[in-house]
Amino acid sequence: MSRPRILIQFDSDPQPSTFDAVVAVDSQVDHLFRHGAVTEENVTGLVHGAMFTRGGEDLKSTAVFIGGNDVQAGEHLLSAVQDAFFGPVRVSVMLDSNGCNTTASAAVLSAGKHLDLANSTLLVLGGTGPVGRRVARLLARQGAQVRIGSRSPDRAAEAAAEVATSIDGDVSIEGVSTAGDDALAAALEDCQGIVACGAAGVRLVDQAALEKASSVKLLIDLNAVPPAGIEGVEATDKGRERGDRVAYGALGVGGLKMKIHRAAIQSLFESNDRVLDADEIYQLGQELLADG
Ligand SMILES: NC(=O)c1ccc[n+]([C@@H]2O[C@H](COP(=O)([O-])OP(=O)(O)OC[C@H]3O[C@@H](n4cnc5c(N)ncnc54)[C@H](OP(=O)(O)O)[C@@H]3O)[C@@H](O)[C@H]2O)c1
Residues lining ligand 1, judged by CB closer than 6 Å? Predict the structure, then answer.
């Protein structure tokens, strides 16, 4: 008989996320242990508690979820958790700080329903943030030509270089400035899609800019807080036709994101050696879509 499923939530914020806790319960976890203010310095003992209590086959019934608002802190926690493992004595672990991996996966899978990504150019607006970097990474992995947009050319170039080096093989990623109308128009030239990943409540593209960008056929806006990141896209848009374009808003992408989040948690309990970061979570999303 298999052991009850225990998910241990390590959150970098003082109070562990209630959002992540609810999704865990909805993912058929039997027990949820929640820890806040988890850091690289204090996580090792918590991981040992997960590793040394159940042996052999039973290890797969314990798993770790890393969350919190700070994605970089989450990335450091993921490294520290893996460093605490040795040999086969380990448990599966998933990183989704600030919903970055599930959101980016859902956005890119939505884009792939409408564009042949391997033959498309997409502008990731606000692409220097944690969600934008993951969107850029996943798009590039699908063979898309990716432009990471930022108000600062230096930040754009740094993000493009960081994303490119995180991927094995040749990918097409460039950093572009989107500061001002002319720079934005140049960044949008010959683009088929926009994925807006700017900070909450920030308008990144208005109708005037969109009117000039005649090649753009797909608009995805991940910002749910008014005003919309892309003018004219509503948060609830889900593959909605707007003129000759298709639009998705944050809530429109959110349904698939939630399904991916739940599927990813369930998959943690299939073995004791899973590490779910952007690419693995995207792959789970692909499998979900393939299964209908
Ligand atoms: N739907 C969902 O389930 C879900 C889940 C998670 C996140 N989100 C949303 O996804 C979006 C991206 O999240 P994130 O955490 O990656 O965002 P973030 O780090 O807060 O911001 C992303 C980028 O936006 C740009 N930006 C910030 N303030 C700006 C301003 N006043 N004007 C223009 N650009 C500005 C910055 O780029 P530069 O400084 O380089 O220009 C920043 O790197 C957010 O809107 C978030 O709410 C949605």
Answer: 98-99, 103, 126, 128-132, 150-152, 155, 197-200, 202, 222-224, 250, 253-254, 257
**Mutational test site, ligand 1, from 124, 137, 176, 197, max ligand atoms within 8 Å of CB:** 197
**Sign of the CA dihedral running 34, 40, 41, 44:** positive
CATH code of 104-253, in short, is: 3.40.50.720
CA dist., res. 125 & res. 197, Å (int):
6
Angle at which helices 100-112 and 278-290 cross, to 10°: 50
Say which DSSP state 44 is in.
H
Domain edges within the chain:
6-99+258-290, 104-253
* DSSP codes joined into one string, 18-39: HHHHHHHHTTT-SEEEEE-S--
Span 111-147, pLDDT tens digits: 999 999 999 999 999 999 999 999 999 999 999 999 9
